[in-house]
Amino acid sequence: MAILVIAEHDNRTLKGATLNTLGAAALLGGEVHLLVAGRSCGAVAAQAAAIPGVSKVLVADAAVYEHQLAENLARLVAGFGKAYSHLLAPAGSAGKNLMPRVAALLDVAQLSDIVGVVSPNTFRRPIYAGNAIATVQSLDPVVVATVRASAFDPLPAEGGSAAVESLDATHDAGTSRFVGEELAKSDRPELGSARIVVSGGRGLGSGENFALLETLADKLGAAVGASRAAVDAGFVANDMQVGQTGKIVAPELYIAVGISGAIQHLAGMKDSKVIVAINKDPEAPIFQVADYGLVADLFEAVPELEKAL
Amino acid sequence: MKILVTVKRVIDYNVKVRVKADQSDVDLANVKMAMNPFCEIAVEAAVRLKEAGIATEIVAVSVGPSACQEQIRTALALGADRGIQIDTAEPPESLVVAKLLAAVVAAEQPELVILGKQSIDADNNQTGQMLAALLDWPQATFASALALQEGRLEVTREIDGGLQTLSLALPAIVTTDLRLNEPRYASLPNIMKAKKKPLEVRTPAELGVALKAHTRLLKVEAPAERQGGIKVGSVSELVEKLKSEAKVI
Amino acid sequence: MREAMEFDVVIVGAGPAGLSAACRLMQLAAEQNRPLEVCVVEKGSEVGAHILSGAVFESRALDELFPDWKALGAPLHTPVTTDEVYLLRNAEQAVKLPDALLPKSLHNAGNHIVSLGNLVRWLGEQAEALGVQVFPGFAAAEVLYDENGRVRGVATGDMGVAADGSHKDGFMPGMELHARYTLFAEGCRGHLGKQLAERFELARNADPQHYGLGIKELWDIDPARHRPGLVIHGAGWPLERDTGGGFFLYHAENHQVVAGLIVDLNYANPWLSPFDEFQRLKHHPVLKQYLEGGKRVSYGARAIAKGGFNALPEMAFPGGLLLGCDAGTLNVAKIKGSHTAMKSGLLAAETVFAALTEELADSAWAPRWKAAFEASWLHEELYRSRNFGPALHRLGPLAGGAFNFVEQNVFAGRLPITLHDREADHARLRPAAEFSPIAYRKPDGVLSFDKPASVFLSNTNHEENQPCHLVLKDRALPLRENLPRYAEPAQRYCPAGVYEVLGTEQGEPRLQINAQNCLHCKTCDIKDPSQNIVWVTPEGGGGPNYPNM
């Protein structure tokens, strides 16, 4: 039986997380189909067809799918979902909104946020905010799951030529309506979802010195965070705090500047893919978790780093 | 309008979880339990709708062993009018919870069900969506604002990269996100009054729901501890490593 | 304007003393078929959240309160099987004292190793079942007096106040809890108990109270090394001769041991760090043999009042009583305070209940209390051990220990001698210049750990945006006096890393108070040499969340 992946997109561009989800699908074995449901989403379908490893792209192009309303989309997917062994979607807000609804229509469980494939019906997923990892086996005929993109390598975006098939079934529950959307335009991404985070600790010495980090962050398109010590010292506001009682972040790159690495902080960022620590104290605990450590005075190293990028 | 609000008993968010030595689950013996924070927000949302004169009655429902009556009492102290505990040995998995809730909805006929978007133990983020599917009601997940407009519910949702606003026909399902409100504290007189509010216990059998297992928990492990990497000698070496080795910039 | 609620009895603190009093009151009310409204307020997020004790538990008071405690499921699961006492000579060596040489008060046959937190959780359930209103998450922040100066209850703290004093979205004013009698059972150095003692001069005929700081950890250990029921006590290394204290290691149930160190807070050397003393202690073979290969699962700290009989203040005042460690009923010879605290609660309940039913005036009730207390085994026990602490303080561990052996074993505490120790603990601190700094070694992350990693395991937290609950009477004093003279000892005596002096490198030192880390141990309120730090209650529900401690 084949695997169906539900594409994440905005009717123009296929989102990268879809490629990671396809990466997870590839570990399951079996033919992989990709569903693109939207309105005037031909461009997305074309991008989907170019992904090697996708054997068929299903396109449901209709006004009722324009905003990915779960009521309509869930009916579409559940309508033919039983024919698949697995239904997967990226664990973004769209996938999390949709997949449990699909699962309930199929009378099966839904596995959230899988980070590992143990076997075609057994998966690893974080629980308790990542403080424990559960291994869960599905007992259902169809596995419905959302996939944490950062846990799987993406498939390449180019090189394939899948068949594209149109679906003409349209489902309109008629109970919900899209009113509007307001997407963040800020150049600096949100701390919780940023791909790169530059975080400062007490080593910065003052709130004014955080400007140094902001310059670096702007160059990298990164968000700026802070350790609890820096927040406690009054350098920056609470909402920048990473770690205990603050935000849990897991960016691809986390740059810790002048942060000693108290456990409260480590708990909030240890799932980052790559951690860089810049600290003048070679004994700082942060170096025990950093992939790349630089023992240096941050007031020299940070401007130098910014120039070198 | 009658509102149903769900509350789950979970480990207190301040408590660090610890995996049992036999890896069967996390150790919950004698640790502080509390109402799931997203459920607190759900209760607060319901209470505010009642204070605004929109809601007429708030029913708080929890699924689990009798200990979860404590969280129902908390909801009653915060402003819910009555409680229903659906008595099960352990909290069942989400699909079963959704079926139990659907049965309660059939009996209670609320116009709105507000749930937390997820519980901080299993982190599933699915019961509300499943309940919506079973009832064939519209859903607005991850709500950060709610308003009733001309008989429809307008909900602002937190989605990746921004906010989305939906308009739902009633009856409907809403799941709460962090920014929807800041829950109030329960006052002492209200805690005392809550002890006298009605709390009904129902069983899955009475509700006609079978406790079927759809998944099996094989193992719970502590996350792998992160190993330290290397020290680089200079900024240029760092940039080089990030570009060519880690490929993150 | 605060709202008020009326009760017959309000009890502050859901520990052994407070809950025993509450349970006994309701038992008496049921026996005599008299309606009674009793409420207990507890600043911890739940009953037991802030309780920290060894603990080897003597069930005498529990037997009196609930003779059927076994059937009621009281969590006394591990009877003591063996007592061992060691004198640590240095980092490697130890002498195990022969059984015959131990003071009788250190024999634990018949006692149980318990988690006091779990025991009070159980007591809390019994209290609720008996009809007590138990309110965890509410801190009694203020004593209320009537127009005659009699205590008429307490007020809980306001909730939802921002750090700058403004009211946040969820602001809820405190609540007045009025009562005919108010019982204060806040534990050692209760912040309201301290105010009451001052206002009513309760300690005018007593020696100054003496304190110790207890630091405790809970470990999962290798099952092969686990000997349930084994109780180990000891003294000596790493504490210097002139520093009193001792350690414990108890083998509890479920392959767990608790280990801890009590450091007397009358120490002189401001460089001393009780936390670091405990961390290095765990490397001693006597402890390491059990901890090695194990995993630390919890951490906590709490001051204990160990002045005993001589430091015991008057417990009664108009309108109420100080109970348990809030007064200082710990028996230091036994190193146990739970059974005595419970007994003080039982006695309080009995006399207060009599006063309520007979409608006694304070002038008639206070002598009744005094007589009941003096006729009790609690009084006798404290009297007999009155010299134990002062002997150690005044004669040193060796001569004092010998005195205690003879006094406790030969004369059973009945010698007509009373030793006194009249210098307050904080006054014993000497200037930093008189000592060299102590070089504590870096924690190895296996047996020993740093403060942040330890505090992390206490599950402590406080709402961030609230006024600091560690109040400096004189904000400039720490840098003006404590820093130059004592190298600001708060940095070292605080077991939670709350106090830090930053910016010394740049020549601009400033005191940073990380109030969020606070474990509510009260050491700063006790040991600050200028008595400049006042511990007040933070927003209810804040503080540690100890499981199984």
Automatic annotation (TrEMBL), chain A:
Q: Which domain of life is it from?
A: Bacteria
Q: Where is the Electron transfer flavoprotein alpha/beta-subunit N-terminal domain?
A: 3-182
Q: Which biological process annotations from GO are given for this protein?
A: fatty acid beta-oxidation using acyl-CoA dehydrogenase
PROSITE patterns attached to this UniProt entry: ETF_ALPHA (PS00696)
**Cofactor binding summary note:** Binds 1 FAD per dimer.
Q: Where does FAD bind?
A: 202, 227-228, 241-245, 258-265, 279
User: One MF term from GO for this chain?
Assistant: electron transfer activity
What Pfam families does this protein's entry cite? ETF, ETF_alpha
InterPro entries to which the protein is assigned, alphabetical: DHS-like_NAD/FAD-binding_dom, ETF_a/b_N, ETF_a/FixB, ETF_alpha_N, ETF_asu_C, ETF_asu_C_CS, Rossmann-like_a/b/a_fold
**Gene3D superfamilies found in the cross-reference section:** HUPs, TPP-binding domain
For this UniProt record, give its keywords in alphabetical order, as a comma-separated list: Electron transport, FAD, Flavoprotein, Transport
Q: Which coenzyme or cofactor does it need?
A: FAD
Q: Subunit structure of this entry? A: Heterodimer of an alpha and a beta subunit.
Give the family this protein belongs to, as stated in its UniProt record.
Belongs to the ETF alpha-subunit/FixB family.
Function, in words: The electron transfer flavoprotein serves as a specific electron acceptor for other dehydrogenases. It transfers the electrons to the main respiratory chain via ETF-ubiquinone oxidoreductase (ETF dehydrogenase).
Q: Name it.
A: Electron transfer flavoprotein subunit alpha
Organism annotation: Azotobacter chroococcum
UniProtKB/TrEMBL annotation, chain B:
**What molecular function terms (GO) are annotated for this protein?**
electron transfer activity
Every copy of the Electron transfer flavoprotein alpha/beta-subunit N-terminal domain together lies at 23-211
Q: Kindly give the InterPro entries that the UniProt entry links to this protein.
A: ET-Flavoprotein_bsu_CS, ETF_a/b_N, ETF_b, ETF_beta_N, Rossmann-like_a/b/a_fold
Which terms under GO biological process does the entry name?
Answer: carboxylic acid catabolic process
Identify the keywords attached in UniProt to this record, alphabetized: Electron transport, Transport
SMART domains, alphabetized: ETF
Q: Which cofactor does it need?
A: AMP
Please, which domain of life does this record's source organism belong to?
Bacteria
Pfam families (UniProt xref) = ETF (PF01012)
User: Record's family?
Assistant: Belongs to the ETF beta-subunit/FixA family.
> What is the role of the protein in this entry?
The electron transfer flavoprotein serves as a specific electron acceptor for other dehydrogenases. It transfers the electrons to the main respiratory chain via ETF-ubiquinone oxidoreductase (ETF dehydrogenase).
Instruction: Quote the subunit structure annotation.
Output: Heterodimer of an alpha and a beta subunit.
Name used for this protein in its record: Electron transfer flavoprotein subunit beta
UniProtKB/TrEMBL annotation, chain C:
**EC number(s)?**
1.5.5.1
Q: Which GO terms describe its molecular function?
A: 4 iron, 4 sulfur cluster binding; electron-transferring-flavoprotein dehydrogenase activity; metal ion binding
Which cofactors does the annotated protein need, by name? FAD; [4Fe-4S] cluster
- All residue ranges annotated as the ETF-QO/FixC ubiquinone-binding domain in the record: 211-304
What Pfam families does the record point to? ETFQO_UQ-bd, Fer4_ETF_QO, NAD_binding_8
Question: What PROSITE patterns is this protein classified in?
Answer: PROKAR_LIPOPROTEIN (PS51257)
Q: Which UniProt keywords apply?
A: 4Fe-4S, Electron transport, FAD, Flavoprotein, Iron, Iron-sulfur, Metal-binding, Oxidoreductase, Transport, Ubiquinone
Instruction: From the UniProt record, list the reaction(s) this protein catalyses.
Output: a ubiquinone + reduced [electron-transfer flavoprotein] = a ubiquinol + oxidized [electron-transfer flavoprotein] + H(+)
Q: Which InterPro entries match?
A: ETF-QO, ETF-QO/FixC_UQ-bd, ETF-QO/FixX_C, FAD/NAD-bd_sf
As for what it does, the entry says: Accepts electrons from ETF and reduces ubiquinone.
UniProt protein name? Electron transfer flavoprotein-ubiquinone oxidoreductase
Instruction: Give the source species.
Output: Azotobacter chroococcum
